Amino acid sequence: MTPRTVAVVAPYYPPKVGGVENYAARIVGALAAAPDLRPVVITSNPEGRRTRVSTEDGVRVVRLGTWLRLSNTPLSPLWPVQLSRWLRRTGAEVVNAHAPVPGLADLAVAVAGRRPAVLTYHAGSMHKGGPHDGLADRLIGGYERYLLPRVFDRARALVAVSPVSLAAGRPGAVEISPGVDLARFTPGPPASGRPRTLLYVGRLDRSSAWKGVDVLVRAFAALADLPDARLRLVGGGDALADQMALAARLGVGDRVEAAGELTGDDLVEAVRTAAVLVLPSRTESESFGMALVEAMACGTPVVGSAVGGIPHVVTDEVTGLLVPPGDPEALAAACRRLLGDGQLADRLGAAGRLRAEERYDWDALMARYLELFRSL
Fold first, then answer.
1. Which helix (H) or strand (E) holds 45?
2. I need a labelling partner for 353 at 20 to 30 A (CA). Which of 44, 156, 188, 328 fits?
3. C-alpha span between 362 and 189 (Å, rounded)
4. How many domains does the structure of the chain reveal?
5. Per residue in 253-286, pLDDT tens?
6. 77: Cα within 13 Å, side-chain hemisphere
7. Is there a contact between 266 and 286 (Cβ–Cβ < 8 Å)?
8. Does residue 286 sit within a domain?
9. Same domain, yes or no: 251 and 148
10. Do both 60 and 20 map to the same domain?
11. According to the model, what pLDDT value does residue 126 have?
């Protein structure tokens, strides 16, 4: 039997690092391993206006030229025509589009024609909420109120990655969260015996200020009485220099490390050896928090904001600690508890590993995706 081709359409794709990119790549890997299904990837080319086609790990990857970027959103006026053409050329029979970045996913659903489209929605409201984001938030509000529901209605199936995803609760929507490779992200030494390193893993873009990295830097500055404590920022983006400058102004620049983007074994080692992983997000744009689950799988205690999807991943005082978003004092207090109470750190780390095994095994989650594609 000829395998059915599934076109996985995402605004960005590895080697770009990010939660949506990792999620889409996992689906591609599961499709490639299935005897009756075959993936093709359609994404944007962040390097210019020309379309590039390549074969990566045995999978055809089509990177459509990008003409401009609004905030973190790649766009091109040619995409409607190009998407239709490439869906035909690749023989795609099913479309799996990934959002919340408006543009490519919406167009993929619109031009799918008779092909069943599965829309995977990765966020709650994308409102930025910053003092200079009034116009952007009005545009986002209009999109989420008027256009996005129409995209949802056109899709044959909806996948919400968490209960706060805007797709959650829509008719026919199913929830399939991100997961973790339990064979790679394995427990390190007990957290109580690790160096006092606070770790952040994620984007460091100015357009992603809702990640709250500045809150973490301010919280870390409040731990000045712990001279052996360190803060390690893993990730890249145009806001990294801003955060390092803030650390310098607060007098802790010499104790903050910019590690850059880490992948593979380097990322695993960073997570396995950290004393605490912190996700200080401010808004519901953080619908899940994949870095939290990776840390939990490594037995690393976690601290997250009580916002968006984070409370659905972290149970306060059981698998981690939750703090109010945007509150550096509360964040500092939670980190201080874990750095000073080894018994608490070890207990939360062990409970986190157990939760990861029970709920977030990538293999089990991807098996649900394959059955969804087969059912269409």
1. strand 37-45
2. 328
3. 23
4. 2
5. 999 999 999 999 999 999 999 999 999 999 888 8
6. 0
7. no
8. yes
9. no
10. yes
11. 72
Domain with 288, as residue range(s), is 191-359
Q: pLDDT tens for residues 42-86?
A: 999 988 999 999 999 999 999 999 999 877 788 999 999 999 999
**Residue 145's CATH number:** 3.40.50.2000
Task: Give φ, ψ of 337 to 5 degrees.
Answer: -60, -45
Task: Please give the distance of CA 337 from its chain centroid, rounded to a whole number.
Answer: 27
- If asked whether residues 208 and 253 sit together in one domain, one would say yes
Residue with tokens 């074969």: 55
Residues 233 and 243 in one domain: yes
Q: Which residues contact 264 (CB under 8 A, 6 or more apart)?
A: none
Question: Residue 133 has what pLDDT?
Answer: 58
Q: Please give the structure tokens belonging to residue 358.
A: 């029970």
Q: Which residues of the chain have pLDDT under 70?
A: 127-136
For the entire predicted model, the pTM comes to 0.87
Question: Strand pairing of 68-70 and 94-99?
Answer: unpaired
Question: CA–CA separation, 199 vs 339, rounded Å?
Answer: 12
Residue that is written with structure tokens 């997250």 in the block: 304
Helix (H, G, I), strand (E, B) or coil at 113: coil
- For residue 126, which of 92, 103, 154, 159 has the smallest C-alpha distance? 103
pLDDT at 128: 58
* Helical H segments across 34-99, by residue range: 79-89
